Amino acid sequence: MEGILPLWKERGMTSHDCVFKLRKILKTKKIGHTGTLDPDVDGVLPICIGKATKVVEYMMETGKAYVGEVTIGYSTTTEDSSGEVVDSKPVTVIPSVEEIDQAMEDFSGDIVQIPPMYSAIKVNGRKLYEYARAGQEVERPKRTVSIHKFKRTSEPILNEETQTVSWRFEVDCGKGTYVRTLAVDLGEKLGYPAHMSDLTRVKSGTFTVKDCLTLEQVAALMAEETIEERLFPLEYALDEMEKIDINEDLWDKVKNGAVLPIDTFQQSITYPLVLMYEGRARSIYDVHPTKGHLLKPIKVLRTSA
After folding, report:
1. Catalytic annotation, pick one of 17, 38, 101, 185
2. Looking at residue 305, what is its pLDDT?
């Protein structure tokens, strides 16, 4: 079995839980997910199976889209609704939509984020959430992320009982973006502690909600022996990379991992480059790191016809 399975991850499960269950359902160990989704978040989680696990890293580089809700009035340890309250400030007057929209617009483009303590980023070989669970605070590395769209999609609503204000949003972003942190930083810009009170991933790379199957649906299709009809070829993970078709003579070299002269392809080619043979991606080549006149394979995808 080989391909990409766009899974609809349900709430209450980790991404690793999904992989564990799929290994049992699909009766194969060679499965990997393409980017962690928090347990409280549902949505599109592409899963790579068989040889497609070779392209996990490229899937993780793709953009994502989410719909969610931000709540101002209090912040939490985890930056979402599952954490303990660490700061609060009652909201007695709802910020104007003009204020909110301008603040959200200010986050468009490349911004710097500090990952939350409850995240899988590693510092000195340990994940941040391991430090957080041990009650330890460490310096977190800043990272630059790209926000393509951050837009309010509902009217802000005041909850008089909790003295908080919430509104829905859409966000399109590049790899590595923490939407939880985006919500917290937005609240700070508006003068309030805040957290992300709801989130759903609606797109990952080229995959959207309509492409997805639930674990229950996967199990049913596996029982019917039709699951492979719903898998996408690994080429979908390489959608944004330049591709070129090679002939049989060149394929004989490529399938054996040969280095190639830099002038094998025209000068205008962008690297890394996906080499295609008989309609299938075979290998990914890039300029040799120390011998600039050569190209070397950085990822061999398929060696047989």
Report:
1. 38
2. 65
Ranges of H-type helices in 36-164 = 56-59, 97-105, 128-133
Q: Which pLDDT score, from 0 to 100, does residue 117 have? A: 66
Nearest to 282 by CA among 300, 258, 260: 300
**Nearest Cα to Cα of residue 63 among 168, 206, 180:** 206
Residues 6+ positions from 232 with CB-CB distance below 8 Å: 3, 4, 5, 6, 207, 211
Please enumerate in sequence order all residues whose Cβ is within 8 A of that of 130, keeping only pairs 6 or more positions apart, or say none: none
- Block means of pLDDT (10 residues each) for the chain, 305 residues, are 95 93 94 87 95 90 94 94 92 94 96 78 75 76 92 96 97 93 95 97 95 96 93 91 92 92 85 93 93 92 82
Q: What span, in angstroms and rounded, lies between the C-alpha atoms of 261 and 247?
A: 16
Residue showing tokens 């990379």: 241
- Residue 65 near residue 172 (C-beta atoms within 8 A): yes
Angle, CA 161 vertex, CA 160 and CA 167 arms, to 5°: 55
Q: Is 38 a catalytic residue?
A: yes
CA 158 to chain centre: 32
Q: Which residues of 54-84 are buried (b: 16+ CB within 10 A; e: fewer)?
A: bbbebbbebbbbbbbbbbbbbbbebbbeebe
This prediction has a pTM of 0.88
